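# nightly structure sweep
# worker-07 picked up a monomer target from the shared queue
# config: single-sequence mode, recycle default, output format = structure tokens
# input follows
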Amino acid sequence: MYFRDIFGLEEVKRMLIHAVEHNHVAHAQLFAGEEGSANLALALAFARYIHCENKGEYDSCGECASCSKMDKLVHPDLHFVMPVSSTTKISKPLSQDFLKEWRDFALNQPYNTITDWLALIGAESKTPSISAEESRKIVSTLSLMPFESENKILLIWLPEYFNITSANALLKALEEPPSQTLFFLVSENPEKMLITILSRLQRVRVRPFHDEEVSSFLEQKYQVDNFKAKQIAHLAEGNMHKALTLMQEVEDDNHTLFRDWMRLCYQRDYKGIYSNTEEFGKMSKEGQRNLLQYGLNMCREALVWKYGGESLVRLDNHSMQFVQGFSKTIGEHNIQLFYQILNDAMLHLDRNANAKIVFFDTSLQISSVIK
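# output follows
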């Protein structure tokens, strides 16, 4: 990951490069950004820049030995810690047990989520954490001197998953940092971290992407046409992971599924709802979540159409026709409840509830509020 691979956020890149140029790199930094932000991407690009042997004015050189190793995330002075969970093959997991998967995960898509990570390592139904044993491994790693660079870097992805014991061990390391050591903590929910840890970190605030940054990324990297890229960027609301999900899904299928689902709920066709639920239950978990997310997007667009006008809605013709009709069934009287119902369904799916039961219950609730 290079700074140039990250679309936009020039103000953050300049700040990080300026810190290196003036030898003002804080020993412990928190890259804080919401899910789908560039927090991990920036931390990886910054680590590369620090290790680079021929730093440029705006980015790493891409040619030195350090950059070659960073291309594969195998630099000996870059260490990783991330939330893990037991799998069928590993009962007491540590980050080092999943380094191969982590490198693939971080290199190919640094905007992915904890859900994607758990699916990759085969722990989709487990609760991830950063254990006390992991903290002991951290202490051991930090006791080593750098092998090739001036500093060694410990990058911790999602430190909010530390338990109390391991968090206290990290706190001790931050209070008495080993020489030539830099801590990069990459968090989506820093409010869940210990205040005593937060007080020892220099925060790098990573804002959500602007719509123009998302659309440019999709157009240049994935050759998405301009209109569709802008449409996706609008729906993604600064979340690059959501944008990539919207890009990859078959939107016509989601549109048809959601449209037909809402018609059944509006008509109180409970036999049809039951049959529909059976079909939803056969979808992949990601497909189920995408359908619910599409529904949330359509609710918002329908509300905007109803109170703001057509100029504020960026949809294609068949989606626009649905929104115009759907907007007649929602308004101030039920939109908050509608949002809550769909959000609750996503939450239940994330907690591995039975999908058929979730969708049937959600359908009954929607039937009672859609008018």
